[in-house]
User: Fold this.
Amino acid sequence: MSNLESADPVRRRAPVPRAQCALARAAEEIGDRWSLLILREAFFGVMRYDDIRADLGIPRSVLTDRLAKLVGCALVEKRPYQEAGDRRRFGYVLTAKGRDLALAFIALTHWSEAHVLGEPGPIEIVDKQTGSGLKVALIDERGRTVPLARAVPKLRRPER
Amino acid sequence: MSNLESADPVRRRAPVPRAQCALARAAEEIGDRWSLLILREAFFGVMRYDDIRADLGIPRSVLTDRLAKLVGCALVEKRPYQEAGDRRRFGYVLTAKGRDLALAFIALTHWSEAHVLGEPGPIEIVDKQTGSGLKVALIDERGRTVPLARAVPKLRRPER
DNA sequence: GATTCTGAGTCCGTATTTTGAACTCAGGCT
DNA sequence: AGCCTGAGTTCAAAATACGGACTCAGAATC
Assistant:
């Protein structure tokens, strides 16, 4: 994916139209100002309407709409729960699809710490078994890590 | 980052306020419907206003605005170029900051292929040296890959 | 058994963004 | 001189977002 080093101004068109572009499809589901932030809340176990609202300061009408969309995309599930001696309520829980976004989230968070925040940031991702700090990296088929600069895109069905 | 397995409805608040959250800061820079797609164009070497517009179908006024924001965030640089026997024009080129987003992009693309597209997608990322297909993975301090399910968030400055 | 409280919304008028179409402007080409 | 092209700008209409008030059901309180 990394760019041609010496940008050549000759190439004019993206190799793949938008409809087949996985990134574009992902952007339809989570590419707006709030969805990412709502999912982050879910990653940290915040699942209740008013708690999300309080954390993010999102308007109620928008939160209602975004939650419905996230449920519609199967990123999150609405499910009932009851706290001891309280009436039954509904909360929102990540689905497997939503949980799998974590890798992209971690990558984006690390990028932001390096390039936007400019410092390590208050939360670190660790291996719950060993306690070791974790990073996101590219690995090849043998599991060896490869520097980003060596990654290039290749058409799978070579043109047509 | 991955969620507590058995979601406990007790936790109510995100561990970190929005202002310090790296993801939230990243979302301010690239969290809208078009910025991601524009950056994707840049990854593939498309750098001219009208080409981006044609690929994405984005309205001119929005593209102008988004490009200015991306330049403002130093994700992209506006720089002059001239093609043989043509007048000098301007194009947009990724900065190092922009290029480093590639890892998050690749992770998001793979997620989308797995969960949105449902099939491999037309572009694959390979090692330009070996040709080996590349994936995104979590690695610990010794470079061993760790499954996502073992990743948990930990506060770096342990509460206060 | 009426009133209050709380979580989880809905409704609504205003403000902001997006859209798409038309217009501009500079430089080169015929 | 007139036309074309890339890279915008301007503008009205449509879609979204915002924030405050309102609703509604069940528990708790008086």
Notes: Residues 21 and 74 of chain B are 20 Å apart (CA to CA). The beta strands of chain B are 76-82, 88-94, 123-127, 135-139, 145-146, 151-155. The domain at 18-150 of chain B is CATH 1.10.10.10 (Arc Repressor Mutant, subunit A).
